Amino acid sequence: MSDKIQITATETGIVRVFSVDIPADEIATFAARNGRWPLREALGAETLDPKHIEVFDAADLTGVGLAGYLTEGHAIPEDQIEPLRARLAAQEGTLMVITSRAFGGTAQTLTPRAPLNLIASFSEPHDPITFDALPDESARTPEYEDKPQRKTPSDAAMSGRVASVVLLVLALLVVVMVWIAS
To answer: Is CB count within 10 Å lower at the N or C end of the chain?
Structure first.
């Protein structure tokens, strides 16, 4: 396979399925990370996290099938699976499922080669982010409202301010009287 796959630093939610043309008894050595990593080399990846890669024998999916595994295990919507259902059902031998997280947010160009063959790419569903109003008035604070609300001072606060001004004026008068008397 000579097609290039562009991975952006912000890629999320993409699930890629590859057939891997190796016998089932070689899966462990192909996927293992000890010095040389054949899977990474065949994918042509710079950065690769094995925690987000699955390499397995298609026979392991007996009863569920690859389509069922993708819808149930990776939440791929049926409308993406349906056009490829026959192709997915026909897969035999070794398969690899790799998610966007495997690339660790590193922009890179994959150059997959034998024994890899891209079967399909799918998008996990993304729930849109919404910012609804808070459900209860007591949960809202004025600094987050559309129009800031200013509290009016209470009568007690106003009386305290008036008393403070009066005391300040009286203190000044006492100082002036003491100064004149001396």
So the answer is: C
